Amino acid sequence: MALSGVWKATVLLNKKVAMRKLLEAYCTNQNLQMKIVTFRYNDKVLKLTDTAEALNMQDGDNIQVYFKVEVKFYQ
Question: Is the dihedral angle over the CA atoms 36, 1, 65, 24 positive or is it negative?
Fold first, then answer.
């Protein structure tokens, strides 16, 4: 089974603001709990304390969102 989807948004964010603000806003907008998603930028898991400046992010860069899904099998 494969789950996929695309959600695109343009966000204006001060380069010195912690990613927490953006990541929490995304989860709130999508009605998700932060504990079930992982955010990555350039194959690096984002920390809530990371900033766009520290990550050398540029206009137009993308953040990937991965969902943690628990699968249980039965016979």
Answer: negative
